[in-house]
Specification:
The chain is mostly helical and 257 residues long. It has helices at 3-19, 22-43, 58-87, 90-96, 101-131, 140-161, 171-184, 197-205, 207-219, 230-250, and strands spanning 47-50, 53-56. The chain has a two-stranded antiparallel sheet with strand order 1-2. Helix 9 runs antiparallel to helix 10 (230-250).
Length: 257
Amino acid sequence: MSGARLALRQLRYENRAFWRNPASAFFTFVFPLMFLVIFNVFFGNEEIEVRGGTATASNFYVPAITALSVITACYTNLAMALTFSRDEGVLKRIRGAPVPTWVFLAGKILNSIVVSILLVVIVVAFGYVFYDVQLPDNTLAAFLLTLVVGAATFSALGLGITGLVPSAEAAPAVINASVLPLMFISDIFIRTDDAPAWITTVAEIFPIRHFSQALQTSFNPFESRSGFEPERLAAMLAWGAAGVVLALLKFDWEPRR
């Protein structure tokens, strides 16, 4: 059997295992929608300035929560699942099995991407139906490319961060600490237009703000260009490459306890 078919078979297994954990699946899909509803209830009707004019804050929160959905599925969930699998000895057993290790990792990563795609579809449809946020039109290609680059970048970083997590017990603290503070300064939960300049400078170092800003451009109702943000995509890809290097150096198949 070819490697591609093995990877697809592993993807099917990972996807079935995901849905057979209803509590995890429920909260994976409910949390982004919960944030989308809460932020829109409090701030959705406020007018905000965007490039070219003004729009309701809902036009900010739909792409912001879209970014949150991809980061949660491809970074947070992937890193936690791999860390727990490592310390439960699953990775060690996989490495000793006839299945190539890259097939196992490909199944994990592809399943995270499938989940993130479902989340993006739900969030965008929810925003269109309930908050009248228009779907990307002339910027559709830029929107899709940004999602692909974002999913690849945060999957690579999710793989790499596992090497820095000392144990499964520490995984929620380490992984959330590496991403949650950045979300507050990267236009995910709140707009940072009026934030001190140094906060924006710090946020520009990391990939979350680049991802959020690139998605904001594709949802800008006044955007007359194609909506591509090549510099932000390049910054995200650089972080993705760093994640791959970190994974090659630090990823561990042996339990650490």
